[in-house]
Amino acid sequence: MRLLASRSSTRPAIRRALPAILLSAGLLVAACGGGDAKAPETSAPETTSPETTAADTSAPTTTEAATTTTEAPAPTWPLTGEPLDDITKANHPAVVVKVGNYDRHPQRGSANADIIYEEIINANVSRFAFAFHSKSAPEVGPIRSGRRQDVNLFGSLNKPVFAWAGGNKTVVAEVRNSDLVDLSQSRCQNTCYRSGDDSPVEFTLMFNVDKVFALTFEEAGVPQPQFAYLKAGEQPTGKASAGVNLNMESYKVEWTWNPDTKIYERTQNGRDDNDRDGTRLTTNNVVILAMTYLPGISGSPDAQSTGKGEAFVFTGGKYVHGTWTRADRLAPFTLTADDGNVIELTPGRTFIELPRDGNTLPKG
């Protein structure tokens, strides 16, 4: 990976949705009180000196009550860290959609995804996975097949709905035996459809995430936060950086920081990476996690997304080098900077790149 030089300056059980979630907030008040204490009276002997006065031991002692208040943190969307005005809106599963990455058949629906993953598959190409939770989209695609590595990669989203075009027998069996909620092409009911445009048929399968969010999947869960985020008003730390270049097998990817819009813009193979409707693929955070890929079935690489590896994080025009760690497939990635601190991202969308390990050249 070459970084740009830094700038100095199962058929799911489906029912109608009935969201229910509890928001717990605590107000802790600790108080202590004091009272008066008076010494017993004694008979003092008479003295001939009128200036001599016995010490007054009856003065009261008072302790003021102390009050401590602990406020619960303001709720945020778990996959973006952005403010959440009504926590009941978040009481639904994440929907992960496998999307093809083709220069001649552009993706659709990227603008509303909370997290986008880019993973290497066979034939030296990459594929996207769009994770939706805080926003939805009526048309997402083109939907493509899944891989074994998807079962591990999306496990931390807590039983998400997995919208995909299916796969070979081994992959289908692994998905159906996992905690991902299988919404493949053969099980999607009215949530998937053919676009009817002039693209070859293999690039016309679309998903309507709006319809998926209108359903309840009994097996699915609500996603947990995947990263640590900066609080309101905080600025990211790190070295100033114009962005990053990297190779995703045959795809040459460039992310460039736009200081005016405060977002990263994506270029692929020398051209602006736009959705079919012309929307530029952008993000608030670029998280690059170097992966070891082992040989998989049918020639598909298999990303080892648990354990540890090298991490390159770009947020707010800054670059931080560190390490990613992940104990098991149900745990999110933990990002730790070289100085030992947890890396915090800018609230908003995150794009996770998963290139092969050993192909990095950081420049600050």
Topology, please?
Layout lengths: L1 E2 L10 E3 L78 E6 L14 E6 L5 E7 L15 H6 L7 E4 L4 H8 L4 E4 L7 E3 L10 E3 L1 H5 L1 E3 L10 E2 L9 E2 L2 E6 L2 E8 L4 E6 L2 E2 L9 E2 L1 E5 L3 E3 L5 E3 L3 E9 L2 E9 L7 E4 L6 E2 L4 E5 L10
Parallel strand pairs: 3-6, 4-25, 6-7, 11-24, 18-25
Antiparallel strand pairs: 1-13, 2-10, 3-5, 4-5, 8-9, 12-22, 13-14, 14-15, 15-16, 15-17, 18-21, 19-20, 21-22, 22-23
Beta content: 25-35%
Gross geometry: globular
- Share in helix: under 10%
Q: For the terminal residues, how far apart are their CA atoms?
A: 13 Å
The secondary-structure class comes to mainly beta
> What is the CATH topology classification name of the largest domain?
YerB-like fold
What would the average pLDDT be, to the nearest integer? Answer: 84
CATH class of the largest domain: Alpha Beta
The string of secondary-structure elements, in order, is EEEEEHEHEEEHEEEEEEEEEEEEEEEE
Number of discrete helical segments? 3
Number of domains: 2
Please summarize the sheet with the most strands: 11 strands, mixed
Total strands: the figure is: 25
What is the radius of gyration? 29 Å
Low-confidence stretches: 1-11, 13-59
| The CATH H-level homologous superfamily of the largest domain | YerB-like
- In the CATH hierarchy, the architecture of the largest domain is 3-Layer(bba) Sandwich
Would you write up a description of this structure?
With 364 residues, the protein is mostly beta strands. The chain has 2 domains: 87-217, YerB-like (YerB-like fold, 3-Layer(bba) Sandwich); 228-354, YerB-like (YerB-like fold, 3-Layer(bba) Sandwich), CATH 3.50.90. It is 5% helix and 30% strand. The protein contains 3 helices and 25 strands. The strands form 6 sheets. Strands 3, 4, 5, 6, 7, 12, 18, 21, 22, 23 and 25 form an 11-stranded mixed beta sheet that branches. It is globular and about 55 Å long. 37% of the residues are buried. Residues 1-11 and 13-59 have low confidence and may be disordered.
